[in-house]
Amino acid sequence: MKLHYHLVDVFTDRAFGGNPLAVFSDGAAVPEAAMQLIARELNLSETTFVLPPEDKQNDFGLRIFTPATELPMAGHPTVGAAFVLEREQLIPRVEKTNALRLEERIGVIRVSIRQEGDAPAFIEMTQPLPKFGPVIQNPDRIAQMLSLDPKEGHDTGLPIQTVSCGVPFLFVPLRDLAAARKIRLRMDLYEQLREQYQAENVFAFTREVESAGAHIHSRMFAPALGVAEDPATGGASGPLGCYLVRHRVLPSDTELRCVSEQGIEMGRPSLIHIRIGHSGNEITGVAVGGTCYYMGAGSLDL
Q: Is 104 a catalytic residue?
C-alpha cells in the first residue's frame, strides 16, 4: 500500500518557516489503526487525514494527530488542509473567496479561502466560543516551571489563566522579550502543575515584539502531546485573542484584529492573524488565519 501526503508550512509565506504539516488528502485510504503510528513516524507537530464527511451538508472530515494523541480541533492542520484541498483542485474553484465546512471531532469548523490568481492566498478558520478557566493564584511556581525569575518573568498586571476554544491552554503573560527568550521548560514541575491546573499546553506571551505588524510575541509548549515546542499554534491563537479582549490587553471596540508572532526562538518564524468579535467582555466570534507555503509531497509504503 502506497500512501501519498503533502507537506505544507503553515502560517508563513516562505519555505522553512511556520509550522510543518503533513496532509493525507485521501485519508479514507489510510487504515484507522495506522493514523497515530504515521503521525508518530513523521514526528511533526500534527498530521492530518482528510476524509469524506459524515453529513453531506459538509465538505470533508478531518482527523488530526500529534505524535502522541488525536486532537478534537487544531488550527494549523485545519488551515493547511484547506490550503492543500484548494491547491490540488479537490474542491470547486470559486472566484475571490471559497468556503468550506470541515467536520472535526469538536464539530463543524467553517473555513474561508481567499484567492489571488490561481492560488489560495489567505485562509481563515472559525473556532468555538471560549471557555475561561480559573485564574492561577501561584505565579511563582509557573515562573519556576519556565525557568524564570518570578520578579523578572511574569507580567503582574495580567492574570495567568486557562482559556479554551476547543483545546485548553494555560496563558502566561510575560514582561518582555528577554523573559520569553529565557524560557526553558522544567519537565519535573510541568508534570506536577499540568495535573493541578488541568492544562497540558503552556502558552507564554509578551506585548513586546520583533516583527513589523505583530502585536504579540508567543511561545507554546505541549510535551504531553508529544510536542516539546510548537512553532505556530492556531488552536491557541483563538483563545489568546479572547484573553486579550477579556483583559483589555489590546484596544478594540467591537472587533479585535491582531497578529501573533511565534516560532522565532525555534528558527521557524510564523505570523498568525487573529480576529475576535465581541460586545464588551462577551466574545461573539473567534477566527484565526494566515498564509501557507507548499513544500512538496511524499509517500509511505505500508
A: no
Q: What are phi and psi of 127, to 5 degrees?
A: -135, 160
In terms of domains, do 46 and 177 share one? Answer: no
The tally of domains found in the chain comes to: 2
State if pTM tops 0.70: yes
Mark whether 113 and 200 lie in a shared domain: no
Locate 139 and state its grid cell. 505565579
200: cell is: 497540558
What distance in Å separates the CA atoms of residue 175 and residue 178, rounded to the nearest whole number? Answer: 8
User: Are 53 and 194 members of one domain?
Assistant: no
pLDDT (tens digit per residue) in 23-75: 999 999 999 999 999 999 999 999 999 999 999 999 999 999 999 999 999 99
Q: Which position among 32, 41, 46, 124 bears the catalytic label?
A: 46
Residues 27 and 153 in one domain: no
The pLDDT score that the predictor gives to residue 26 is 97
166 and 255, same domain (yes or no): yes
Q: Show the domain range for 77.
A: 2-125+291-301
Residue 184: CATH number of its domain: 3.10.310.10
Backbone φ and ψ of 164, nearest 5°: -135, 135
Closest CA relative to residue 208, chosen from 189, 169, 180 = 180
Q: Name the nearest CA neighbour of 41 among 15, 23, 16, 68.
A: 68
| Residue where the block lists cell 467536520 | 103
Please give the helix or strand (H or E) that residue 8 lies within, else none: strand 2-10
d(CA 24, CA 35): 10
Calpha distance 53→182 (Å, rounded): 44
Residue 56 CA to residue 61 CA, distance in Å, equals 10
Considering the domain architecture, whether residues 95 and 50 belong to the same structural domain is answered as yes
For 302, the grid coordinates are 505500508
My answer on whether 69 and 197 are in the same domain is no
Distances (CA, A) of 272 to 69, 267, 290: 24, 16, 6
